[in-house]
């Protein structure tokens, strides 16, 4: 079988890149290891254009937001599924946050994404907001799990999906092509998430993945139709269910769910709501992250048949579509630009 590209991994990164390449008329086969837990299986799907800690814009958001909306709407049409839910995030403010919200929002030009004036008297049933809330108006969530499973079916129907792990021993890199079993392609692009740490071609890259855990809870009667955030977010997903997240750990990169993470999330949730919720499930995953928290995109200088699209970190839903769109332009030769902060070349620069 001859195709333009082999894509390794069908998490969010592989899905978005395959979608863009197919839209541009390219042929491909996606290999996905069914035995690995994807970060994308765990992700809440939150879209937040603002970094609350510093009250600044999220990296590249002015470019990424528009493309994000465009891509998920295109995918909704392609897959006949509702995937994108634009809903505001309401940040519960502390006493000192009200003045800070106004000054930082102005100084950091956040006006496109949030209400500049906090709502001092905003009230919810069952949630204390003594100093009001600040509202991020351009925010929401994407149902990543639905997106990925529907896209797998789409690929299967095109005979473009293999439910198997790529074994590096069996990969043959030739001067102008790559061969894997019966598939021959111009290039192979790795979208392996955190597993890229074990890829022999990317030994020079500096990964700094983080483990995260989230809870899904049932809270009848809360009736939230906005995402509420303080130290954790409370995201409504329908049928009285809410996702609460997320924890960050850099020292224990495994998929085990832990009591300590559950207690941390519940204790932070308790600062927002006092009802005792029913825990439906708890999940753990590893966010694929680089040392500088920027994505890693491009082809190896010495083996240009091998590429990577990874490092989406905790912002994959917002950043992924724009990065996939840009990278596709690069792959097709329509552009020679990969953002220098995201370019794989940063790991190969000689001092
Ligand atoms: C608790 C938690 C909460 C999160 N919440 C959010 C959120 O609210 N919003 C947000 O934007 N992001 C969130 N994220 C981050 C988000 O999950 C990632 O940005 C994104 O899903 C990464 O996608 P990926 O495709 O790079 O990796 P993955 O989803 O991990 O996918 C990699 C895929 O590659 C496959 N693979 C690996 N090696 C091979 C091989 N050799 N052969 C074949 N297949 C292979 C794996 O099986 C896997 O399917 C969260 C993450 C966690 C852990």
Question: pLDDT below 50 for ≥5 consecutive residues: which ranges?
Answer: none
Chain-averaged pLDDT: 96
- How many domains is the backbone divided into? 3
- In N-to-C order, the SSE pattern is EHEHEEEHEEHEEHEEEEEEEEHEEEH
Secondary structure tally, helices = 7
Highest-level CATH class of the largest domain: Alpha Beta
Tell me what portion of residues adopts beta-strand conformation. 25-35%
CATH architecture descriptor text of the largest domain: 3-Layer(bba) Sandwich
Overall shape: globular
Share of residues in helices: 25-40%
CATH superfamily of the largest domain: FAD/NAD(P)-binding domain
Distance between the termini: 43 Å
Could you say which small molecules are bound to this protein? flavin-adenine dinucleotide
- At the fold tier of CATH, the topology name of the largest domain is FAD/NAD(P)-binding domain
Total beta strand runs = 20
Alpha-beta content class = alpha+beta
Brief sketch in words of this structure:
This protein is of the alpha+beta class and 351 residues long. The chain has 7 helices and 20 strands. The chain has helices spanning 12-23, 39-42, 61-79, 97-107, 144-157, 259-270, 316-331, and strands at 2-8, 28-31, 46-47, 50-51, 56-57, 84-86, 89-92, 133-136, 140-142, 161-162, 171-173, 178-180, 183-190, 210-218, 227-229, 233-238, 241-245, 278-287, 296-299, 306-310.
Blueprint (SSEs and pairs):
Layout (H helix, E strand, L loop, with lengths): L1 E7 L3 H12 L4 E4 L7 H4 L3 E2 L2 E2 L4 E2 L3 H19 L4 E3 L2 E4 L4 H11 L25 E4 L3 E3 L1 H14 L3 E2 L8 E3 L4 E3 L2 E8 L19 E9 L8 E3 L3 E6 L2 E5 L13 H12 L7 E10 L8 E4 L6 E5 L5 H16 L20
This protein binds flavin-adenine dinucleotide.
């Amino acid at each position: 079988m001859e195709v333009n590209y082999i894509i390794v991994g069908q998490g969010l990164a592989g899905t978005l890149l395959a979608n863009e390449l197919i839209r541009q008329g390219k042929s491909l086969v996606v290999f996905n290891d069914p035995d690995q837990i994807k970060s994308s299986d765990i992700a809440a799907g939150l879209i937040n254009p603002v970094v609350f800690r510093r009250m600044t814009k999220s990296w590249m958001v002015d470019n990424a937001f528009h493309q994000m909306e465009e891509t998920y709407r295109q995918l909704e049409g392609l897959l006949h599924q509702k995937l994108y839910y634009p809903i505001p995030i309401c940040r519960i403010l502390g006493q000192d946050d009200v003045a800070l919200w106004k000054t930082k929002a102005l100084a950091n030009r956040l006006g496109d994404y949030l209400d500049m004036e906090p709502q001092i008297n905003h009230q919810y049933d069952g949630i204390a907001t003594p100093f009001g809330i600040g509202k991020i108006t351009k925010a929401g969530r994407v149902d990543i799990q639905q997106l990925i499973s529907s896209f797998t079916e789409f690929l299967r129907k095109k005979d473009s999906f293999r439910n198997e792990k790529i074994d590096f021993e069996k990969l043959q890199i030739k001067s102008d092509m790559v061969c894997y079993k019966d598939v021959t392609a111009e290039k192979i692009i790795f979208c392996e998430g955190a597993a890229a740490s074990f890829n022999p071609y990317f030994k020079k890259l500096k990964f700094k993945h983080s483990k995260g855990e989230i809870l899904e809870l049932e809270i009848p009667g809360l009736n939230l139709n906005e995402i509420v955030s303080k130290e954790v977010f409370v995201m409504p997903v329908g049928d009285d269910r809410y996702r609460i997240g997320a924890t960050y750990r850099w020292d224990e990169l495994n998929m085990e769910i832990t009591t300590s993470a559950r207690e941390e999330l519940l204790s932070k949730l308790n600062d927002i709501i006092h009802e005792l919720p029913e825990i439906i499930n708890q999940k753990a995953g590893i966010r694929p992250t680089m040392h500088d928290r920027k994505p890693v995109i491009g082809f190896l200088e010495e083996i240009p048949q091998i590429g990577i699209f990874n490092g989406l970190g905790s912002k994959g839903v917002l950043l992924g579509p724009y990065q996939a769109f840009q990278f596709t332009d690069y792959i097709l030769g329509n552009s020679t630009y990969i953002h220098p902060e995201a370019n794989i070349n940063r790991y190969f620069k000689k001092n």
